[in-house]
Design brief:
52% helix; alpha+beta; 3-stranded antiparallel sheet; 135 residues; single chain
């Protein structure tokens, strides 16, 4: 496997000269699917310090208990967060980022900042597109 850089600076791994990043069987696809959805990104942002389930749920307006549970399990399965059972009565559970999950805070933070910085422009373009599409 060799690496090549595009003009945009992204690195794509190639096998026998073909870009695997665009192939249906690329191993990165399911990982991107699982960690780059909106709830995963928001959960990881909330976990700047260890939190219990209900605290995460309160901070993420609009997330259902079912979706949050699935998101936490997926992030734990992928090694991004760890679940720790607390020796309390009743038993509590706390979630925190692993070193692997912590390594995503910086790139996720940049993506979030870009989103906030461009939200008004994107919304204006959506309105313009929708207006043109109705004609």
């Amino acid at each position: 496997m060799a690496a090549s850089e595009t003009g945009a600076g992204a690195i794509y791994r190639t096998v026998a000269g073909s870009d695997i990043a665009f192939r249906a069987d690329c191993p990165s696809r399911p990982i991107l699917d699982q960690i780059a959805d909106k709830w995963s990104m928001m959960v990881m942002a909330v976990l700047e310090r260890p939190c219990r389930f209900n605290e995460i749920k309160r901070r993420l307006e609009g997330v259902t208990q079912r979706v949050l549970t699935q998101t936490l399990r997926r992030l734990e399965r992928n090694g991004m967060i760890e679940r720790r059972v607390l020796p309390t009565s009743p038993v509590g559970v706390e979630y925190s980022l692993t070193p692997l999950g912590e390594s995503l805070r910086e790139p996720f933070g940049r993506l979030y900042d870009w989103t906030v910085d461009h939200a008004e422009e994107i919304r204006a373009r959506q309105i313009d597109y929708d207006r043109r599409s109705r004609k």
